[in-house]
Sequence to fold (64 residues):
Amino acid sequence: MRRRTTPRAVLLATGELLLWWGALALLWLVLISTVDTLERIVGASVAAAGALLARAGRRAVTWR
Fold:
């Protein structure tokens, strides 16, 4: 069987990832004093990886 993803589920997943990314990127910017371009790129990348891991962890806990 092939499972179809509904547009609502895709929007919820995207929203969750953006929320995690925003929170983690903001935390990164608050914890460093001066912000250089490279630091913004590294912070955004690490925040994106953290957002994916946070979503995967939440899904693993709630998956049955």
About this structure: The CA atoms of residues 14 and 55 lie 10 Å apart. The chain has one domain: 7-63.
